[in-house]
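Q: What would this chain look like folded?
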Amino acid sequence: MKSDWNQSIINDICSLVTDGAHNSPKSVDKGMFMASVKDFAEYGIDFSSCRMISEDDYEKLRLQGCVPEIGDILVGKDGARFFEDIVLYRQPEKPALLSSIAILRTNREKVLPEFLYYTLKTPAVRKDVRDNYGSGSAIPRIVLKDFKRMPIGYPSIDEQQQTVSICISIDEKIQLNNQINANLAA
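A: My prediction, written as C-alpha coordinates:
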Protein backbone atom coordinates (compact mmCIF):
# COMPACT_ATOMS: atom_id res chain seq x y z
CA MET A 1 0.00 0.00 0.00
CA LYS A 2 1.35 3.37 -0.98
CA SER A 3 1.57 6.28 1.46
CA ASP A 4 -0.60 8.52 -0.74
CA TRP A 5 -3.54 6.11 -0.56
CA ASN A 6 -6.63 6.99 1.45
CA GLN A 7 -7.04 5.14 4.74
CA SER A 8 -10.48 4.21 5.99
CA ILE A 9 -12.52 1.37 7.43
CA ILE A 10 -14.94 -0.96 5.65
CA ASN A 11 -17.95 0.76 7.21
CA ASP A 12 -16.92 4.13 5.77
CA ILE A 13 -16.31 2.93 2.21
CA CYS A 14 -19.44 0.79 1.96
CA SER A 15 -23.04 1.89 1.71
CA LEU A 16 -24.08 -1.52 3.07
CA VAL A 17 -22.37 -4.00 5.38
CA THR A 18 -24.77 -6.72 6.41
CA ASP A 19 -25.27 -10.45 6.29
CA GLY A 20 -27.93 -12.89 5.25
CA ALA A 21 -30.88 -14.32 7.11
CA HIS A 22 -30.44 -15.39 10.72
CA ASN A 23 -33.39 -17.74 10.39
CA SER A 24 -33.56 -20.56 7.90
CA PRO A 25 -36.95 -20.84 6.22
CA LYS A 26 -38.34 -24.25 5.35
CA SER A 27 -37.13 -25.73 2.06
CA VAL A 28 -39.64 -26.28 -0.75
CA ASP A 29 -39.44 -28.19 -4.03
CA LYS A 30 -40.19 -25.18 -6.20
CA GLY A 31 -39.59 -21.57 -5.26
CA MET A 32 -36.79 -19.06 -4.91
CA PHE A 33 -33.08 -19.72 -4.34
CA MET A 34 -31.53 -19.54 -0.87
CA ALA A 35 -27.73 -19.79 -0.83
CA SER A 36 -25.18 -20.48 1.88
CA VAL A 37 -21.39 -20.72 1.79
CA LYS A 38 -21.68 -24.35 0.67
CA ASP A 39 -23.03 -23.00 -2.62
CA PHE A 40 -20.02 -20.76 -3.32
CA ALA A 41 -17.99 -21.54 -6.41
CA GLU A 42 -14.73 -19.87 -7.39
CA TYR A 43 -16.40 -17.04 -9.33
CA GLY A 44 -19.98 -17.03 -8.09
CA ILE A 45 -22.72 -19.17 -6.64
CA ASP A 46 -23.43 -22.69 -7.89
CA PHE A 47 -27.21 -22.81 -8.10
CA SER A 48 -27.35 -26.51 -9.02
CA SER A 49 -27.28 -27.52 -5.35
CA CYS A 50 -28.97 -24.44 -3.90
CA ARG A 51 -32.06 -25.08 -1.85
CA MET A 52 -35.37 -23.38 -2.55
CA ILE A 53 -37.67 -21.44 -0.24
CA SER A 54 -41.23 -20.20 -0.73
CA GLU A 55 -41.86 -16.91 -2.50
CA ASP A 56 -43.38 -15.49 0.71
CA ASP A 57 -40.30 -16.38 2.78
CA TYR A 58 -38.06 -15.01 0.03
CA GLU A 59 -39.93 -11.70 -0.07
CA LYS A 60 -39.54 -11.28 3.70
CA LEU A 61 -35.80 -11.88 3.40
CA ARG A 62 -35.52 -9.54 0.41
CA LEU A 63 -37.14 -6.77 2.44
CA GLN A 64 -34.64 -7.46 5.26
CA GLY A 65 -31.72 -6.88 2.84
CA CYS A 66 -30.67 -10.53 2.52
CA VAL A 67 -30.59 -10.53 -1.30
CA PRO A 68 -27.40 -9.34 -3.05
CA GLU A 69 -27.26 -6.98 -6.01
CA ILE A 70 -24.89 -7.30 -8.95
CA GLY A 71 -21.59 -5.77 -7.85
CA ASP A 72 -21.93 -6.73 -4.19
CA ILE A 73 -19.05 -8.56 -2.56
CA LEU A 74 -20.09 -11.74 -0.77
CA VAL A 75 -17.80 -13.09 1.94
CA GLY A 76 -18.10 -16.39 3.77
CA LYS A 77 -17.83 -15.23 7.36
CA ASP A 78 -18.53 -18.36 9.42
CA GLY A 79 -17.09 -21.83 9.67
CA ALA A 80 -13.89 -23.63 8.77
CA ARG A 81 -13.48 -21.60 5.56
CA PHE A 82 -14.26 -18.22 7.09
CA PHE A 83 -12.88 -15.42 4.92
CA GLU A 84 -11.70 -17.94 2.31
CA ASP A 85 -14.76 -17.72 0.08
CA ILE A 86 -15.05 -14.25 -1.45
CA VAL A 87 -17.19 -13.58 -4.52
CA LEU A 88 -17.88 -10.48 -6.58
CA TYR A 89 -21.53 -11.14 -7.36
CA ARG A 90 -22.26 -10.83 -11.10
CA GLN A 91 -25.00 -13.38 -11.67
CA PRO A 92 -28.56 -12.50 -12.73
CA GLU A 93 -30.18 -14.79 -10.13
CA LYS A 94 -31.31 -13.08 -6.95
CA PRO A 95 -30.83 -15.60 -4.12
CA ALA A 96 -31.63 -14.94 -0.51
CA LEU A 97 -28.52 -15.54 1.59
CA LEU A 98 -27.99 -17.13 4.98
CA SER A 99 -26.18 -15.30 7.79
CA SER A 100 -22.94 -17.16 7.09
CA ILE A 101 -22.43 -14.74 4.18
CA ALA A 102 -21.57 -11.05 4.56
CA ILE A 103 -22.81 -8.63 1.91
CA LEU A 104 -20.64 -5.59 1.15
CA ARG A 105 -21.90 -2.88 -1.17
CA THR A 106 -19.26 -0.23 -1.83
CA ASN A 107 -19.83 3.48 -2.11
CA ARG A 108 -18.64 3.67 -5.73
CA GLU A 109 -17.58 7.29 -5.32
CA LYS A 110 -14.87 6.07 -2.94
CA VAL A 111 -14.07 2.46 -3.87
CA LEU A 112 -14.90 0.31 -6.86
CA PRO A 113 -16.42 -3.03 -5.86
CA GLU A 114 -13.84 -4.86 -7.96
CA PHE A 115 -11.01 -3.07 -6.15
CA LEU A 116 -12.34 -4.04 -2.72
CA TYR A 117 -12.92 -7.60 -3.94
CA TYR A 118 -9.32 -8.02 -5.10
CA THR A 119 -8.03 -6.30 -1.95
CA LEU A 120 -9.96 -8.69 0.31
CA LYS A 121 -8.54 -11.67 -1.58
CA THR A 122 -4.90 -10.70 -0.97
CA PRO A 123 -2.93 -12.96 1.36
CA ALA A 124 -2.00 -10.00 3.60
CA VAL A 125 -5.63 -9.02 4.19
CA ARG A 126 -6.70 -12.64 4.76
CA LYS A 127 -3.93 -13.12 7.32
CA ASP A 128 -4.82 -9.84 9.04
CA VAL A 129 -8.46 -10.91 9.30
CA ARG A 130 -7.58 -14.33 10.71
CA ASP A 131 -5.08 -12.86 13.20
CA ASN A 132 -7.04 -9.80 14.34
CA TYR A 133 -10.73 -10.02 13.53
CA GLY A 134 -11.77 -13.65 13.81
CA SER A 135 -13.50 -15.01 16.87
CA GLY A 136 -15.07 -18.25 18.02
CA SER A 137 -13.19 -21.34 19.11
CA ALA A 138 -15.52 -24.12 17.95
CA ILE A 139 -16.74 -22.33 14.83
CA PRO A 140 -14.42 -19.58 13.61
CA ARG A 141 -16.17 -16.44 12.37
CA ILE A 142 -15.95 -12.74 11.86
CA VAL A 143 -18.82 -10.76 13.34
CA LEU A 144 -20.19 -7.77 11.42
CA LYS A 145 -19.11 -5.15 13.97
CA ASP A 146 -15.51 -6.35 13.60
CA PHE A 147 -15.86 -6.54 9.83
CA LYS A 148 -17.03 -2.91 9.75
CA ARG A 149 -13.95 -1.67 11.62
CA MET A 150 -11.38 -3.37 9.37
CA PRO A 151 -8.94 -0.83 7.92
CA ILE A 152 -8.71 -0.49 4.15
CA GLY A 153 -6.30 1.51 2.04
CA TYR A 154 -7.29 2.63 -1.43
CA PRO A 155 -6.01 4.94 -4.17
CA SER A 156 -7.93 7.33 -6.42
CA ILE A 157 -10.74 5.92 -8.57
CA ASP A 158 -8.53 6.29 -11.68
CA GLU A 159 -5.76 4.22 -10.11
CA GLN A 160 -8.32 1.68 -8.87
CA GLN A 161 -9.64 1.32 -12.44
CA GLN A 162 -6.13 0.69 -13.76
CA THR A 163 -5.44 -1.96 -11.12
CA VAL A 164 -8.82 -3.60 -11.57
CA SER A 165 -8.45 -3.82 -15.36
CA ILE A 166 -5.22 -5.81 -14.93
CA CYS A 167 -6.75 -8.10 -12.31
CA ILE A 168 -9.88 -8.71 -14.41
CA SER A 169 -7.73 -9.58 -17.43
CA ILE A 170 -5.81 -12.14 -15.39
CA ASP A 171 -9.03 -13.57 -13.90
CA GLU A 172 -10.57 -13.94 -17.37
CA LYS A 173 -7.50 -15.88 -18.54
CA ILE A 174 -7.70 -18.14 -15.47
CA GLN A 175 -11.40 -18.82 -16.11
CA LEU A 176 -10.72 -19.58 -19.78
CA ASN A 177 -7.92 -21.99 -18.83
CA ASN A 178 -10.21 -23.66 -16.29
CA GLN A 179 -12.85 -24.14 -19.01
CA ILE A 180 -10.28 -25.56 -21.42
CA ASN A 181 -9.03 -27.97 -18.73
CA ALA A 182 -12.60 -29.06 -17.94
CA ASN A 183 -13.29 -29.67 -21.63
CA LEU A 184 -10.08 -31.67 -22.01
CA ALA A 185 -10.91 -33.74 -18.94
CA ALA A 186 -14.38 -34.48 -20.33
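The chain has one domain: 6-185.
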